[in-house]
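REQUEST
  id: r-88c1
  op: predict_structure
  target: Hemerythrin-like domain-containing protein
  payload:
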Amino acid sequence: MAPIYRDSPLPLIPTPKFQTGKDDPFTIEASHMALSHNAFIRGFNSIYQQAPRLELASDKASFVGYCLAWVDCVVTHHHYEETELFPNIDKAAGQKRLMDGAVHEHEAFYGGMDRMKTYLQSKGPDFSSKELLDIMDSFKDALHSHLKSEPPAIVALAKHSTAERPIDILGIAETAGKKQVNLPFLFNTLPVFFLNMETATFEGGMWHEVFPPLKGLTRSIMLRLVPMWQSARWRFVSCTHEGQVKSLAV
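RESPONSE
  id: r-88c1
  status: 200
  body:
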């Protein structure tokens, strides 16, 4: 029997709200970011844990699709930050380069993620788990360092929000986030985000059915119906659609 997913080699990061108990807009947006980053971390870990266990060519082919979806999800997230979120924060504050530190952190792991994508695209199901994990090892520390440091940087933006130049951080983030979703991304990539989000027990379950902010029919569509497309690749996720950690596929 396949083992239960575990948070290794990258540990999860806490949300600022859980750490401080505050619920101002900057703390909430930073906490949403931390939860999103944890989905990326669980995706990384699920790839890292399952790659050495794969034997069947059919499993490997689907797994490559899963890995590439994870890369696309992480890269798209950081691209939208650089092209939408950060520029609009600067515009609202009337200042420039407030999030330049985060942009430089992105550059530290982009090369490794590009190598991972190129390697998987060239090798397909013939990839070597050792070679794949070596590539992931080359950027995992830089990636995790960034994912951990960015939420506190969002909290710190509060000092730039004034009565004269208020920064509607939640509104800016919501508008920017919507721009990254199109139909191909929805069906081919987004499930790697939603289905690596454990909310049932994380931080006492305080985010369960709170984030991601999906309710009713929309929640069912995003977490149950959409993953039926490309379902072979979504077998490798770390969590169920109910936000619980599950057994790995292999």
